[in-house]
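To: structure desk
From: M.T.
Subject: fold request, one chain
Message: Could you run this one when you get a chance? Sequence is below, nothing fancy, just the single chain.
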Amino acid sequence: MSLGEIFLWELMGTAVLTLMGCGVVANVTLRKALGNNGGWLLVNFGWGFAVFAGASIAEPTGAHINPAVTLGLAVDGQVPWSQVPVYVVAQIIGGTLGAALCWAAYKLQFDTHDDPAGTLGIFSTAPTVRNAPWNLVTEIIGTFVLVLWIIQTPGSGRGDDGAFSFGNDALGYAAVAFIVIGIGASLGGPTGYAINPARDLGPRIAYALLPIRGKGSADWGYSWVPVAGPIIGGVLAGAVALVLPAT
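Reply: Done. Structure tokens follow.
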């Protein structure tokens, strides 16, 4: 597969991921959306199935849609390092584009929301208790679980074309929805579980650029945590996978 094809599929898959993922948070947050006050469980399910949709679209490239996944697979020797920059740039641009499309879908609700300064959480994550070192640990742990699951789950591996693709033997990419929902329900409470630098940084960039009435700060001071934490977690998962017995 060419680098251009990798770029296209990863951009499209990550855009759908953040369109639907940010969309479910907008639905729960914005006062005049039908899902207002739908709660944390709705957000978890929405993000889980957003990952399923994005991964299904990006299937030709192995459905990474997450720089932490790409880096973990590269450490494990499943993805050539020369392809990593193309994956990551496409994922960040896709994350930004999907978040912008989410805003377009909910523009009227943004315009009439009674707390426009508090809308950053629709796009990116924030901790409930701000302590950067421990917030980082939380993101590392959650991402480690996700990436190790992707590498080790039965059905994942190299296809006939030599590219790594993940998926459960029985459920395919639907299985990833369950692991993301599980991580959100069990480990997402402290930081909102970014577990994906593109999922947080791309929408944060979109928030900073979009003409949202009365919006607040993009909180760049915290923005490094949901980038560095998932990267460290993904790299650690790839390193651990190297020493595990072959499945």
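Reply (cont.): The chain has ten helices and two strands. Let me know if you need anything else for the meeting.
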